[in-house]
Amino acid sequence: MNKLSIEKQTRILSLLVEGNSIRSIARIMNGDKKTVIRMLEMAGKKALEIHDTLVNNVKSNLVQCDEVWAYVGKKQKQLDLEQRYYSDKNELGDQYTFVAMDAETKLVINFLIGKRTYENTISFIRDMNARIMTRFQLTTDSFQPYYNAVKRTFGNEIDYAQIHKVFNEPENAEKRYSPAQIKKIQIIPLIGEPKLHHVSTSYIERQNLTMRMQMRRFTRLTNAFSKKLENLKYAVALHFFYYNFIRVHKTLRATPAMKAGIANSFWTWEMFLGFENEYKKVA
Length: 283
Fold this sequence. Notes:
Mean pLDDT: 90
Strand content: 15-25%
Low-confidence stretches: 277-283
Number of strands: 6
Strand order of the largest sheet: 3-2-1-4-5-6
Helix content: 25-40%
Number of helices: 10
Order of helices and strands: HHHEHEEHEHEEHHHH
Radius of gyration: 20 Å
Shape: globular
Number of domains: 1
Distance between the termini: 28 Å
Largest sheet: 6 strands, mixed
């Protein structure tokens, strides 16, 4: 991989963030699958470094959170007893990507990949708290661990509400791939004084679609899935770097990082490949 020219490296990165699979990129580049995987590993580590360095002290008014389902190795229902309960790494089966996004600038503030547990939920909320410097209004779905995690992390220093969707699903409904019809939506104020007209998860749910379209391993009903949890984390980190710093948001006419004030200009893949620890902001 180190022998690849900058042009080939940027081409591979561009293909990775545009929804191509590892094998398809190897075919397009007339290269080896292992080379593409090593490139993903390098880029994922660098993307995490950039995110942790630059996405801090965020000024936010409205934040939306959600979790996106994927799986590693095999789906949860296919795990045997040992894989389900006694595996130390707990890598196989369902894995969720927790995402927090600023509803005004569209900046992805933080993310976490892991099981859908209370421990991961509170780690995700605490990381979000460490990155935001202002009081803000938070909206999540009605996943049960959210309330305790938010209450323990913020106390009353936040305005928080949940959206609870009730689906019209008959008891003996045939299994299907399309979502069930929504019967009603309940808005539940929980902490502070959330403004009800701002209680929404629409933007973060649209971000979920972007993830599924631009990361091949998130595409439903295909044979594309992560074989290792580590590679899933690298792919997600690279996606969010591209989303925050390189891809121009159509409605913003800038990148989310520029709109949020944490980048002064558009990033390029050359800037990404040359990023070092001592860089504190984009020149």
